[in-house]
Amino acid sequence: MADTHTGNVIIVAAPSGGGKTSLVKKLIDTLENVEVSVSHTTRKIRPGECDGKDYFFIDEPAFQKIIDDHGFIEYAQVFNHLYGTSVAQIQKRLKAGIDVVLDIDWQGAQQIRKLFPQAISIFIIPPSLTTLQERLQNRRQDNEKVIKERMRRAQDELSHYPEFDYLIINDDFETAASELQAIVVTHRLRTACQTIKHTKLLSFLLT
Question: In this model, does residue 112 exceed pLDDT 60?
């Protein structure tokens, strides 16, 4: 039986509309002992979203209080809204041996790496800018002005891909989902992780 061990931090980033949220959901549904971190945000809740599941939706004063209390591992402003990752919920899951997925942007990823140097970082890109625009339009969540702004910023976001350990092209969803799962499983099988997880077994085999 495996000992309780520290989980892995998995950073997944992409330009808006890149498909990271759907891919992360597929990962969570497919693998055991992996959960997504639920971020706090000051943006308005969208149709179909659930408070506490998709995000913790709070106002700016409440967000600022958490900042003042040093309650965020990272936070950033994206499209005039604030997003932050809670310290408490990350640490609790890691101590329980659960891999924690952070669905964040490249700015947040930079902050996370400073605190978790061993974090796995994965960047997801669309097969083309045309496909990215079509996906943003098909979501029907933003007006054309917002979509235009997201497209303007997409190339700047895409330029940060070299900062990540892995790069996935989300052309075919099932292929991209399999690649994301393979990255997580491969990291779990690294000798350093397995040594911690199976200390008793290895000790028995070497005695």
Answer: yes
